[in-house]
Amino acid sequence: MKVTVERTALLRALGHVHRVVERRNTIPILSNLLLRAADGALNLKATDLDLEVTEAVAAETAQAGATTVPAYVLYDIVRKLPDGSQVSLESAGDGAQMLIRAGRSRFTLQALPESDFPDIAPGDLPHRFTAPAADIKRLIDKTQFAISTEETRYYLNGIYLHAAAGNGETTLRAVATDGHRLARVDVAAPAGCEGMPGVIVPRKAVAEIQKLLDGVDGEAVIELSASKIRLSIGPVVLTSKLIDGAFPDYQRVIPAGNDKVMVVELAEFTPAVDRVSTISSERGRAVKLSLQEGKLTLSVTNPDSGSAVEEISVDYEGEPLDVGFNARYLLDIAAQLDGDTAFFKLADAGSPTIVQDREGAPALYVLMPMRV
Amino acid sequence: MPHQSIASFGLCRDCLGRTPPPPPPGRRWRCRACGGPRVVTHPELDQLTIAHIDCDAFYASVEKRDRPELADQPVIIGGGKRGVVSTACYVARMSGVRSAMPMFQALKLCPDAVVIRPDMARYVAVGRQIRAMMRELTPLVEPLSIDEAFLDLAGTERLHHGSPAESLARLAQRIETEVGVTVSVGLSYNKFLAKVASDLDKPRGFSVIGQAEAVAFLGPKPVSLIHGVGAVARKNLESRGYRLISDLRAASPATLASLFGKEGLRLSQLAHGVDHRKVTPERPTKSISAETTLEEDIADLTSLEPLLWRLCEKVSSRLKAANLATAGVTLKLKTADFRLVTRTRAGFPPTQLARRLYEPAHALLQQECAAHRGRQAWRLLGVGASDLKPGEDADQGDLADQTARRDASAEHAIDALRSRFGDKAVFRGISLRHKRP
């Protein structure tokens, strides 16, 4: 293999690809990137066996071929090379090494044979649709915080992506929950998504997709089967295994009968929750919301350190109600809301509460109460 | 019995009376009142308040109490042909049998021993009875296990019309007559020395270590006398020249701290006979576990599953009894060559249900069996519940779990049936499954 690439283009591609590689690996080949030089392009590929990202960079190929080298070392080298330099990559030592040259710098890296590099084997991906990158990013941005890290309920360790039908229209919907809170977000259904199976996209793939879509306009192509998902955006292709499990029936836990409505200015609510929660000893302590007509009192009592109270005026006309929530979770949800106000629908101190931008907004959050 | 020289009186452990100063050297000191030989004396006898009480060969003593025909026979309590000795009676100990010894070895040493499977429920009941008697003396009873406890008797003199020593002698006698097992008492001015003392004069002993002689007493003892110094720590200490407790005392606390960290400071203090730990009555439970040594080594997951299930049931019933829930399960395995493997899964919603303990425990076991491609044989299997929460938080269900309350009421219904009709009344099919040939 012998190929010359422009440093900036190579760095950008490495930036996308190398993150997939786990820092600590017991299998040496998994620390490596696959480089394959073909006609006019250098293809990069990284995998952790569950997730694989490939990207093609324009290149001058003197000799086609492939090799694998340590991902983080290559990334660090290219990062430190001077801007605007041409980088030459060349197999050496009968393929046991790779030579990197740029300007006056020369590096020799230990290489492992291309044939050892694992392939995720996506198989047939029968469902295919194209969606605006911004929509996919929105689905992720608004739900990612609710993904569970609990190993026992592994099927919660991702975002449940599916086509949802309701009110006579179909939407592409993302749902995530850790049991304490749930996030459900809809975007307009792209043509072709209707027949897709509901899939659980694992947390790591979600995070990588989010980074790939950062600041990208245009369209993303999504292809799926029941066990794999592939997202292509420009020259980057991400393929991931899906979580093999059944996502819980989330619609059943979204309360329909919550009749106590509170509307509060976010600019007042968020800092106030943050302030009173200072007094709680460990993160995640409950903050008590006491509702009366036109008035919300936030309070925290911690026997070890003291207490805090703050009052804000709200739109509320129901019966007085006391309910406790995890302050951290309240703040997480408040941070997702797009408008100036938060719209709460409550039932009682023991039942889940709904939070939205406004009635009927495409993003909906459910929060479990805490005993206070 | 240490130091009988300058005492002004002795305490008779048979008639509980005080007896005048010791006789001239050469004559045995017997109680003036009853003529009994069990007189305990010490210059500080009336000042010391911290006691450690340890039942003598507890499980074996309970068995002998309930089966008098075993009284003079060697009795070993332990599990199956493969298990280890949990208790050996004093007759068996004369043949060299010790607790924690593999059963086959014990039987080689003492072939005519009567081996009895432990009946924990009965021992626990007896242990509770004894603990209740301790609590009549002082609220400051800190149980270490079902058959031993620390007591702090400071300030009980007027209540019990006598010094702590007298109260303890009375308690020992009462346990012997009312419960039918014997105990050994260690009396000192802190927990460390009280525990050391109770071991000096076993069985049916009463030993005193006073402040005046503590340092001299400890000096020539090996470092392994200190609790927490096992075989590995002892080797480590010895390799640096600390063989005896006097060696530790000679070193500065700073030196020991630089060598062994926090533990070094502890060793230094204990070597000087200093131990500031209080006798604390209720230690909150940190974990609840159950384990079993297998009849024979098993590698196959399917054969391990019923055993795992039964352990989960056991842990679950203990959680329920203690009104606790757990959010962390630890699987414990021991390989045929005694290597210990533990794997933990934590962070799930608090539960006390056997079914819900089984899920993560099973996932861990499956992982471990798969990692060895089912070829690793295990000799011990255990399940532990940690990260304990109040029982009220158990199985409340959440946004991703709609069945928790239903599962809980189903299991509680089964528990109710079992408590009325016995454990065999209702059980899950998995516990019936037999090992594949």
If you had to describe this structure to a student in words, what would you say it looks like?
- The complex is a heterodimer of chains A (372) and B (437).
- In chain A, strands 1, 2, 3, 4, 5, 6, 7, 8, 9, 14, 15 and 16 form a twelve-stranded antiparallel β-sheet that branches.
- Chain A folds into three domains: 2-116, DNA Polymerase III, subunit A, domain 2 (DNA Polymerase III, Chain A, domain 2); 127-252, DNA Polymerase III, subunit A, domain 2 (DNA Polymerase III, Chain A, domain 2, Roll); 255-367, DNA Polymerase III, subunit A, domain 2 (DNA Polymerase III, Chain A, domain 2), CATH 3.10.150.10.
- Chain A is elongated, with a radius of gyration of 25 Å.
- Chain A is α+β, with helices and mostly antiparallel strands.
- In chain A, helix 1 (7-17) runs antiparallel to helix 2 (71-80) and helix 5 packs antiparallel against helix 6 (327-336).
- The model of chain A has no long low-confidence stretch (mean pLDDT 93).
- Chain A contains six helices and 25 strands.
- With 437 residues, chain B is α+β, with helices and mostly antiparallel strands.
- Chain B has four domains: 1-41, no CATH class; 45-210, Alpha-Beta Plaits (2-Layer Sandwich); 219-271, Orthogonal Bundle (DNA polymerase, domain 1); 288-432, Dna Ligase, domain 1.
- Chain B is built from 15 helices and 15 strands.
- Chain B has helices spanning 58-66, 90-93, 103-109, 120-137, 157-160, 164-179, 191-198, 214-218, 231-239, 245-250, 253-260, 262-271, 301-321, 354-371, 404-421; strands at residues 10-12, 18-19, 39-40, 50-55, 75-78, 85-88, 114-116, 141-145, 148-152, 183-188, 206-208, 288-298, 324-335, 340-351, 378-390.
- A five-stranded mixed β-sheet of chain B has the order 8-9-4-10-11. A four-stranded antiparallel β-sheet of chain B has the order 12-15-13-14. Chain B has a three-stranded antiparallel β-sheet with strand order 2-1-3, covered by helices on one side.
- In chain B, strand 8 and strand 9 (148-152) form a beta hairpin.
- The N and C termini of chain B lie far apart (59 Å).
- The chains are: A alpha+beta (372), B alpha+beta (437).
